[in-house]
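Input (structure):
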């Protein structure tokens, strides 16, 4: 009998028209291929894995199974603090788990709170305003162009090519669409016109910084806005017809690379991220670096053609997919001071 591990996740599913949910409702959720790949990796490491869907039955399942540790990739289904649901249950039950805690997950999903906390700690993030509806736009203080996003979504949800707006009418229309479609406020940020990067990290007190990934926009369809939008992530860039949109590592000056790595680690620590995370950044027209987003639950899609940022960076760093998953698990075990016998350290890197 191997080391008993639970795998908490939300499966992708088709949204019914009568559910009144946005068409990208399940964009953050994981497909069967990803769940199976993580399961296989953990089994190779010597674990006995039980898959646990993060639904209303999850708490009772966790009480019954009492896994030694949970590998958590659950995004949560509903509410602005949904990513915190499974970790909060696990803490109540005193079950160890991989990844960040409830507070980090709740704050990081709220882009406005994330910007405020980073700014107070000396990390540059875009100037922004939050609007509950289009009527509030009359209090706009930011100059165009602007980017309109849902306040608390991830995986490109609610970010379309049309999210980049350059006039009052377009701003009102986009804010109206966001607030009605996602039933939450819209965050409006200054548009940063420079290059965009994302940085994966693995570890805790001194996290390992994976190779930087640059997200490029020149190969997007003609007329598309230079944004890493829902269309760019899930519609235009698919395994059957991948876009050449990532450069890893990018061609950047050594000084900029050092700055990106330093800011990534500082951001990771400020928000108390644990075990694994990904930080999205962008330059303005003068080359100044800003943090756009913090992802303490980064995607772990195994297919290299799917352009999942963190696994792609890990592959460039020399990790196999099995090593990536097992190393995340080992970082959590180390954090909890657990040293179970029988686990295969062959698949663990930099532990």
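Output (sequence):
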């Amino acid at each position: 009998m191997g080391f008993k591990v639970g795998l908490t996740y939300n499966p992708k599913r088709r949204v019914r028209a009568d559910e009144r949910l946005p068409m990208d409702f399940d964009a953050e959720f994981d497909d069967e291929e990803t769940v199976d790949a993580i399961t296989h990796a953990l089994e190779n490491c010597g674990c006995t894995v039980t898959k646990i869907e993060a639904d209303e039955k999850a708490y009772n399942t966790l009480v019954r199974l009492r896994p030694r540790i949970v590998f958590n990739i659950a995004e949560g289904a509903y509410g602005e603090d949904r990513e915190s649901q499974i970790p909060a249950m696990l803490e109540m039950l005193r079950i160890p788990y991989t990844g960040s805690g409830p507070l980090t997950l709740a704050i990081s999903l709220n882009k406005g709170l994330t910007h405020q906390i980073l700014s107070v700690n000396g990390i540059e993030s875009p100037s922004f305003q939050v609007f509950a509806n289009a009527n509030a736009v009359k209090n706009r203080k930011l100059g165009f162009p602007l980017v309109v996003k849902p306040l608390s979504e991830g995986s490109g949800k609610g970010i379309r090519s049309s999210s980049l707006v350059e006039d009052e009418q377009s701003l009102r229309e986009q804010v109206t669409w966001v607030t009605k479609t996602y039933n939450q406020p819209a965050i409006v940020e200054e548009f940063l016109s420079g290059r965009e990067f994302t940085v994966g990290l693995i570890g805790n007190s001194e996290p390992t910084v994976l190779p930087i990934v640059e997200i490029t926009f020149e190969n997007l369809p003609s007329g598309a806005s230079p944004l890493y939008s829902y269309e760019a992530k899930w519609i235009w860039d698919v395994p059957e017809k991948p876009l050449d949109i990532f450069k890893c590592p990018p061609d950047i000056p050594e000084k900029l690379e050092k700055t990106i790595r330093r800011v990534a680690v500082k951001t990771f620590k400020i928000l108390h991220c644990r075990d694994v995370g990904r930080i999205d950044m962008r330059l303005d027209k003068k080359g100044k670096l800003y943090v756009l987003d913090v992802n303490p639950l980064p995607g772990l899609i195994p297919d290299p053609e799917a352009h999942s940022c963190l696994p792609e960076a890990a592959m460039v760093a020399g990790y196999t997919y099995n090593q990536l998953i097992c190393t995340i698990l080992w970082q959590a075990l180390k954090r909890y001071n657990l040293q179970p016998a029988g686990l295969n350290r062959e698949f663990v890197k930099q532990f």
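Notes: The mean pLDDT is 92. The chain has three domains: 3-108+324-347, 114-190, 196-319.
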